[in-house]
Amino acid sequence: MAKQHSSSSSALHLCSITTLVFLALLITSSGASTQSLSYDYYNSSCPKVEQIIHNVVSQKLLEASTTAAGALRLFFHDCFVEGCDASVLVASNETHKAERDAEINLSLPGDGFDVFFRAKRALELQCPGVVSCADVMAIATRDLVYLVGGPRWEVQKGRRDGLISEASRVAGNIPEVNQTVPQLISLFKSKGLTALDMVALSGGHTIGFAHCKEFMPRIYAYNKTFDIDPTMDQSYAESLRSPCPEKNFDPTVVAFNDVTTPYTFDNAYYQNLQKGLGLLATDQKLYADPQTRSYVSLMAKDQQGFFDHFVSAMIKLGNIGVKTGNDGEIRRDCGFFNA
Ligand code: HEM
Ligand SMILES: *[C@@H]1O[C@H](CO)[C@@H](O)[C@H](O)[C@H]1NC(C)=O
Ligand SMILES: *[C@@H]1O[C@H](CO)[C@@H](O)[C@H](O)[C@H]1NC(C)=O
Ligand SMILES: *[C@@H]1O[C@H](CO)[C@@H](O)[C@H](O)[C@H]1NC(C)=O
Ligand SMILES: *[C@@H]1O[C@H](CO)[C@@H](O)[C@H](O)[C@H]1NC(C)=O
Ligand SMILES: *[C@@H]1O[C@H](CO)[C@@H](O)[C@H](O)[C@H]1NC(C)=O
């Protein structure tokens, strides 16, 4: 940018480069989102892909009810770092720290990893080397959301697995609880998602948990004037103090993200925000900020409306940075790049 002002001749030169880059982007993005992903991608190569994944996923959910939330969060993190390419599933090795082990990892949920690994192993028995881990993540997450009460949608397939998984490339791509709504909006915008998409996707917090450290700044020594965040229901805040004591708290203890219906995918999360019952500071701020408040109200009063917006945002999320054609690979084991 700064260079464009250095001299008029170089500005002209940069201008033509910019046009070329722009054209290249147009070609790439239309190729990625419309040509290559399709509903019938595995029709001949693995016709039972959806059924095989569904069987594994429903069995896993019976064993561990936390699976749905774990998978949804992992899918979100995967798509926000390097695009939806299953890079989050790759393990670190002795010399190399992978994406899933970034400091900001925030204890990514083991059951989420497990359900994707299991679904992929089941697929390898029937159609070896065919279905990408990235598609497994998209399909399994869709199934889990539906199985815990949420909407269902058709998943477009044909994503390929990424060849990069770097812990150092995570920071800045994943939202954090201390961010402001304008910061969150700009992060989501950088991934092609609108503020409405962001509010709808945050409805993912209608299931699952957060560890004490994520909300403790709200319930102890909040600021100079208030001990407890004044936007938080005061008795709700007090009820969180005993599982999360100020000193020597247990780092493994968690609280429900949706305190009213923690295991059901519904719009109670938004109704909670209207009552000061949001757990994370960022959740509650969606209702405080004028840029997002009306969206929260919309979702709170209309569950079908929430579901419709959630589905459209999940489809956009699932298209972020997808690799197709000869990009990437079809990993044999989701935890490792092919040798
Ligand atoms: C808007 C910004 C967001 C922030 C700041 C945020 C932050 C967090 C934090 C701090 C946790 C708790 C992690 C832990 O302590 O283990 C969490 C959990 C979770 N997040 Fe988000 N998140 C955001 C958006 C999203 C989106 C867009 C989705 C998916 C569509 C999502 C899905 C989840 C789920 C399902 C859990 C529960 C995970 C579990 O129980 O294992 N979040 N989030
Ligand atoms: C692919 O399979 C689905 C489900 O069996 C079917 O509805 C669809 O028509 C098939 N598409 C093609 C191109 O064969
Ligand atoms: C560790 O992983 C990196 C890439 O993720 C790879 O380049 C390197 O060869 C691996 N090292 C070992 C010892 O396997
Ligand atoms: C990241 O998450 C994985 C899976 O839960 C865990 O095994 C690993 O220890 C975590 N890494 C860090 C640095 O928190
Ligand atoms: C949020 O917290 C992280 C560490 O947890 C810190 O690196 C970052 O600077 C903080 N961001 C803001 C906006 O305060
Ligand atoms: C404390 O937080 C409240 C609510 O966020 C805010 O209105 C107030 O100005 C803050 N006070 C100080 C001293 O920072």
From TrEMBL:
Q: What PROSITE patterns is this protein classified in?
A: PEROXIDASE_1 (PS00435), PEROXIDASE_2 (PS00436), PEROXIDASE_4 (PS50873)
Gene label: LOC104591960
Q: Supply the name of the protein.
A: Peroxidase
Cofactor(s) for this UniProt protein: heme b; Ca(2+)
Q: Which stretch is the leader sequence?
A: 1-34
Pfam families attached to this UniProt entry: peroxidase
Gene Ontology BP terms: hydrogen peroxide catabolic process; response to oxidative stress
Which amino acid positions bind substrate, per UniProt? P175
Q: What does this protein do?
A: Removal of H(2)O(2), oxidation of toxic reductants, biosynthesis and degradation of lignin, suberization, auxin catabolism, response to environmental stresses such as wounding, pathogen attack and oxidative stress. These functions might be dependent on each isozyme/isoform in each plant tissue.
Q: Where in the cell is it found?
A: Secreted
Q: Which GO terms describe its cellular component?
A: extracellular region
Q: Is Chloroplast found in the keyword set?
A: no
